[in-house]
Specification:
The protein is an alpha+beta fold. About 20% of the residues lie in helices and about 30% in strands. The protein starts with a strand and ends with a strand. The relative contact order is 0.10.
Length: about 300
């Protein structure tokens, strides 16, 4: 992906098929910005002009501040529930170059919209600028409006890839702690307000923790595991285009909203009716953790 403004082109280089930008290059192929992430995919820092800036988040995953290597706040941000920018007081060249804010999304300041991979989101109207390729669920009318953002519930839901709205983790404990430690390591004088925020942070409920485990597992699946799950006999083409991106999104939805029951021996399964077809995901829950075994669409 690339973007050109006033004759200056910026090329974005992603981490595999994830939504995380690793670095950006200019017209000449020179790296102009780099990004550092935690193992959970939390954006921790931006490097530019030989300087490092550290990201600070609130409980809704919004970037609320940037600090430099000395711990000085060089940018502060506030937003309304839909992502309209209410405050941006970036004070340095590097801070002004930051494109990440509301929910950690990429903000295109030239058009005042968020780039969410599959399509753009327009916060003033609270809608996407293109229709969702997913037709939605008949038992959930909100999902059948192809332009809705986060099922019209931006407080509890997020939609980082522009395809399916998912539970908002509100900056899950592990990722938040990692980001805080990283910023603290590079900036010993982090502001008192940031310390107060972290002190007041609370862990998420069990259901959201399991959703986080599901996302982490799907991301870690190797090519053989993905190939097995998406093989033709599993019928994914009946509810999607069969790509791993859409299949894993449906697995996430099933694990989040599906009906749970026993499967074989100690295994469990979750089922979800989607586009009049039944999606099945099998898994094992042990010691508070889940491990996904398989997933498929039941034959008619």
């Amino acid at each position: 992906m690339s973007k050109t403004v006033d004759g200056v082109t910026t090329n974005y280089h992603y981490d595999g098929d994830s939504i995380n930008v690793l670095y950006e290059t200019n017209n000449d192929g020179k790296v102009v910005r780099q990004y550092v992430y935690s193992d959970d995919g939390i954006r921790l820092a931006m490097k530019m002009n030989g300087k490092s800036l550290y990201y600070h988040y609130n409980a809704d995953d919004d970037v609320i501040a940037l600090t430099d290597e000395a711990g000085k706040i060089v940018a502060e941000y506030t937003y309304d529930a839909w992502g309209n920018v209410l405050k941006n007081n970036a004070s340095t060249e590097e801070a002004k170059a930051n494109s990440y804010g509301y929910k950690g999304y990429t903000y295109d300041k030239e058009i005042e919209q968020y780039y969410l991979m599959a399509r753009y989101y327009e916060p003033e109207q609270g809608v996407f600028t293109a229709v969702d390729p997913d037709p939605g669920d008949e038992d959930d009318p909100q999902t059948m409006n192809g332009y809705n953002y986060a099922s019209n519930n931006p407080v509890m839901l997020a939609d980082p890839d522009g395809l399916w709205a998912g539970v908002l983790f509100k900056f899950a404990a592990k990722g938040g702690k990692t980001a805080w430690k990283y910023a603290k390591k590079g900036a010993k004088k982090v502001s008192k307000s940031m310390k107060k925020w972290w002190k007041g942070f609370k862990a998420k409920p069990k259901k959201r923790q399991e959703t986080k485990q599901t996302n982490s597992q799907l991301k870690s699946f190797d090519s053989d595991k993905r190939k097995h799950i998406t093989e033709p006999e599993h019928q994914w083409n009946s509810v999607s285009d069969g790509s791993w991106g859409q299949v894993q999104a449906l697995i996430k939805r099933t694990m989040r909203s599906g009906k749970e029951s026993s499967y074989k021996k100690s295994a469990r399964k979750k089922t979800l009716i989607y586009n009049k077809r039944k999606i099945i995901v099998t898994f094992v829950r042990k010691d508070g953790k889940i491990k996904i075994g398989n997933a498929w669409v039941e034959r008619k």
